Amino acid sequence: MDPITDDLRALLRRCSVATLCTQLFKRGFRNTVIQGVRPLAQGPELMVGEAFTLRYIPAREDLDHLGVFNDPAHPQRRAIEAVPPGQVLICDCRGDASAASGGSILLTRLSKRGVAGFVTDGGLRDSPEIAHLKFPVYFGGPAPQLNLARHHAVDMNVPIACGGVAVFPGDVLVGDGEAVIVIPRHLVNEVAPDAAEQEQLEEFVISEVRNGASIVGVYPPKEAALARYQEWRKRGGKN
Amino acid sequence: MDPITDDLRALLRRCSVATLCTQLFKRGFRNTVIQGVRPLAQGPELMVGEAFTLRYIPAREDLDHLGVFNDPAHPQRRAIEAVPPGQVLICDCRGDASAASGGSILLTRLSKRGVAGFVTDGGLRDSPEIAHLKFPVYFGGPAPQLNLARHHAVDMNVPIACGGVAVFPGDVLVGDGEAVIVIPRHLVNEVAPDAAEQEQLEEFVISEVRNGASIVGVYPPKEAALARYQEWRKRGGKN
Amino acid sequence: MDPITDDLRALLRRCSVATLCTQLFKRGFRNTVIQGVRPLAQGPELMVGEAFTLRYIPAREDLDHLGVFNDPAHPQRRAIEAVPPGQVLICDCRGDASAASGGSILLTRLSKRGVAGFVTDGGLRDSPEIAHLKFPVYFGGPAPQLNLARHHAVDMNVPIACGGVAVFPGDVLVGDGEAVIVIPRHLVNEVAPDAAEQEQLEEFVISEVRNGASIVGVYPPKEAALARYQEWRKRGGKN
Amino acid sequence: MDPITDDLRALLRRCSVATLCTQLFKRGFRNTVIQGVRPLAQGPELMVGEAFTLRYIPAREDLDHLGVFNDPAHPQRRAIEAVPPGQVLICDCRGDASAASGGSILLTRLSKRGVAGFVTDGGLRDSPEIAHLKFPVYFGGPAPQLNLARHHAVDMNVPIACGGVAVFPGDVLVGDGEAVIVIPRHLVNEVAPDAAEQEQLEEFVISEVRNGASIVGVYPPKEAALARYQEWRKRGGKN
Amino acid sequence: MDPITDDLRALLRRCSVATLCTQLFKRGFRNTVIQGVRPLAQGPELMVGEAFTLRYIPAREDLDHLGVFNDPAHPQRRAIEAVPPGQVLICDCRGDASAASGGSILLTRLSKRGVAGFVTDGGLRDSPEIAHLKFPVYFGGPAPQLNLARHHAVDMNVPIACGGVAVFPGDVLVGDGEAVIVIPRHLVNEVAPDAAEQEQLEEFVISEVRNGASIVGVYPPKEAALARYQEWRKRGGKN
Amino acid sequence: MDPITDDLRALLRRCSVATLCTQLFKRGFRNTVIQGVRPLAQGPELMVGEAFTLRYIPAREDLDHLGVFNDPAHPQRRAIEAVPPGQVLICDCRGDASAASGGSILLTRLSKRGVAGFVTDGGLRDSPEIAHLKFPVYFGGPAPQLNLARHHAVDMNVPIACGGVAVFPGDVLVGDGEAVIVIPRHLVNEVAPDAAEQEQLEEFVISEVRNGASIVGVYPPKEAALARYQEWRKRGGKN
């Protein structure tokens, strides 16, 4: 699978997750937003990248002790160095945020490596420090407890569940100040331009509403509003 | 039902939801605060207004497609233009915040129309934009998914449940930085002055406690403290 | 039981809850972080203090009316004046945050009395005001409803549950910007120095990672990294 | 809306809810089974009937006292006498089964009136007695607490939510030993025969599997199995 | 506190929990039925007895190991031998039924000792065996995990929470095939006769409904029905 | 990995899940019982067998349509024919029992193939029919909705989560009338005989308790009781 292009990334960065959601809903997808996960830190731009997955199952006392991290092949540690720059590391913690799936050291390393972001439906420890990274991080909540207490890292780059949504390696993840959406890889090339177009139309609509327009005939726009929209576009998006 | 008076609004704006809660508790009401709902945006003053209700039931795939918004009679869109200025639009989404019950366009329109606020126990999309409106908004959480994916708008101005509380059209809703309370309409004229009085007494109590007083004899105030309170009121609420 | 020493307090204040968690995990404790509780207000330093407990059971209509606060022996009011300076008042509200276990007057009083902090797995009313106190407060969420509506204060200084964790009077509570941990009293003297040492090592690790190091061989540190760490310590913790 | 015919009832009684579910899934409906509701009592046949709805909102202390039942216009009591024979009374209790939405007297009355069944996502009191009625009853759980403690009956024959599913008056409800499904009224005439056909095919498949067949080529059936199925039908469904 | 009399026990045994619930609701009590707890075993009669309480807090790994049962002063084991015959042992497990609060040996011992019943909002192990005891047992669910894994027995005969309800030692517990109710001790002498009277009236009402009467004028009974009721009573409760 | 021996199976069949739980607890394992799963059907003996796993992630509308079952390589269908006789098919449905992970046809096939049992933390359709199979089945609840509506079968024989417990292929599953336990494979040879021994001791203890013994000195047994136990064993387990 080829990496997504810079043009596609740029296009997606102009779209909110809400708008992408509408485009997927139109195509019959009703379960696309990762549930129970919120932004902890933000980068300078929207998070956009292909999914690189890490899967956890429940911890077992004999397998999950502090000694495991001495093994460089431990899947969690391996994933941190294996996720390619530009991709997003996304973890399946079965929605259990009572223990961490990472902390400030691992998240700092990801940000230094040029990774596009981090998503977990588990917890994160050192969350106040992570909040200061200029790096997109989405999580289930603060959890000082270490992952070994609840989570056993088992494999990477397999299809996973995250926050109730199916995530296949290579799916495109977009995260804004609200949430993260999973775009099935084969749809991203058609969804992105439609979403960008919708963004522009909604920008026009909101400018009309700010100027006092009723939503009737404007949202969604009927003929007259669509004509004004075309004018507005010609004027470069100015009222 | 006559609209509530400006005097009553002013009186209620001097009261916290906590204080109004105590007044309703005194009168035998134990379930008055909308649960699972928090402030997203705040106006320049506390939110005060009569309830104008909108009811959703679960979505059904054949009824809830994007085409429905072309119908100006769609209950959600109709409610946005129908709620009278000074009232609060409040939605029953069955506490399901996994999909939106509105977004920045609709909320902007409400704020432009002079509506007093918006409350939903469902989600809201475009929540980062809505947070910048100078308009009281209370919600169940950010949800980029559009309402059609989970919620079917069915009727308006009927009694509803919101966050586990009964809301009848015309009930008075007050929202502060903490929560929203539902005051049964027939009680608001007696609850408001009692709550305002309680606010003043508690302001006195906290000033004493800030000055080092024990709570014994002061909270609740016994005779000596009540005498000091009368002095304090005469001094215009200064220690 | 003697109070904990100032040296021990100072040592604990240099440790995050996450680090203390690791130290207790090492010793076989997997359930040490209070769940469902988050910071509302912060003092100038981390919260450190011995647990002074207050236990609630569900309210009963005939027992829990506003008149009870006229009795200075009411356990909630008594606890406010009884918790010794330097200790933390911690409440068992059975994880029910739909009603308050305190408000701004009681919390102000605690802060004036030199108490070390307040923790509840119930709610708090007047939460926007409490957020401005320079006093460590951890809670289950904003709840304008008064405690009498759900909670009956029953006794103090007995072992309790708080957020799913056992808390014995005298256990040491540490709270940072993320969470509160319960350190069994008999372990605090060995846990504190080990945690402080771990903090320093992790500070070194993160400085290396910020400089571009891979986590391999560094986190956890192998021989070479440990040698660099010793150098770093000699240099006073500077790269 | 005409009542459903006896032929249609007979056809639906030959179908399990699971099979009807598959037929609706085929047509794009994924949310058709009432959640959190289980059988309490069974009639001599599967429950089949049109939905007659009753809606509850949360109780309010001043409105919901024992005196209300003296009013024959109370919606709950009115619904009991108003639901036509052959229809199913279905209640929206917001999924709160901590209080009843009926008891043995009301359920006995429904069974005497020739009503087709009763469904609630709330509780039922006197559940051990109701279990002995020869009458289809589905409920959220036993709840001796009376409805007034949590539920305020507000209106009937409006669209409702029940167990997370939209129910419009006149929709066809089918209940078996497992669950209740809501069939949108306009689809019932096409869904019923397809489901009855599917039942027959699955009866054939299970007879083959009982005889030792692998599921490969049999479930779903490929050409050879379909040929055997045609033979089996000719033989009157015997192996 | 004197034990309850045999007459009172006999009176209460003629009442369902639902009826007792109505009587307490009438007196302003809305939270009287233990939630999340169901019958596992039944004795020959309804369970009636005074509450003898046992309180658990969360387990701690160093305190809750198998060795503790060697100590005859362990609160769980002590409670088994201490609860007086005729009383009910009721446990506060914080509603956590993922571990047991007893098993077949302890429950058998209770039944041999003449204890009136056992109630827990935690789990029970050996539940299939316990189901065969002729002894009233109510529980949160089957849980083979031993109590030490989650629950630390801490004290007995203190006020507790069980299934969301306050239970004071000496309160009267009544359990039928549906649920367990907590009757505040000071009310039992007035509640019992009123409930027994209500039972008789409802027996009459249901007999009329079985004979085809409408509920209008009968439930609740108006003048004519009340007259028939008086006749019915004279006839010794026969139609 | 060699299959477990018939001797080991026989030994495990003499042990309840509760007893096996105690043995694992003794060895430091606190999370061994599958949560949220209950028996639906029982075979002639306790379920004992090695885990053969099937993993589901959330469904996606474009991937999970009825056509997929035409593909014999579909993981769910493949697993049904692939699980070796004597092993248990266990499914990870993320604890979501709102849709099925099988129905009567597939379960009948498993029972015909000599498979040892079936466990899912999802739902099952046709549950009333399955309840009549003489085959051990454990499930999260009845769910007529087909798996495609919520679950996407993704791979088999990988480590999974089931009901909050880690399950590795080859782990030994034991199920009785109460629950299912997961015994890590490397421990089963030591756990089984110890559990069988414990069963015998507890049989003795319960016989003493049935004869009126106090639990003091008997449970756990002190010297005198242990002596009687040795006698009892010599007598072949008779009092």
Radius of gyration of chain A: 20 Å
Number of helices in the DSSP assignment of chain A: 7
Largest sheet of chain A: 8 strands, mixed
Low-confidence residue ranges of chain A: none
Based on secondary structure, the structural category of chain A is alpha/beta
What kind of oligomer do you see? homohexamer
State the end-to-end CA separation of chain A.
43 Å
Name the average pLDDT of chain A. 97
Find the count of extended strands of chain A (DSSP E, 2+ residues).
10
Rough outline of chain A = elongated
**Helix-strand topology string of chain A:** HHEEHEHEHEEEEEEHH
Largest interface: A-B, 30 and 27 residues
Describe the structure.
Six copies of one chain form a homohexamer. In chain A, 31% of the residues lie in helices and 21% in strands. By secondary structure, chain A is of the alpha/beta class. In chain A, the strands form two sheets. In chain A, strands 1, 2, 3, 4, 5, 6, 9 and 10 form an eight-stranded mixed beta sheet that branches. A two-stranded antiparallel ribbon of chain A has the order 7-8. In chain A, helix 2 (17-26) crosses helix 6 (188-210). Chain A is elongated. The N and C termini of chain A lie far apart (43 Å). Chains in contact: A-B, A-C, A-F, B-C, B-D, C-E, D-E, D-F, E-F. The A-F interface holds A 28-31, 57-63, 94, 152, 154-155, 158-161, 164-167, 184 and F 28-31, 57-63, 94, 152, 154-155, 158-161, 164-167, 184.
Feature tags:
alpha/beta, 239 residues, two-stranded antiparallel ribbon, homohexamer
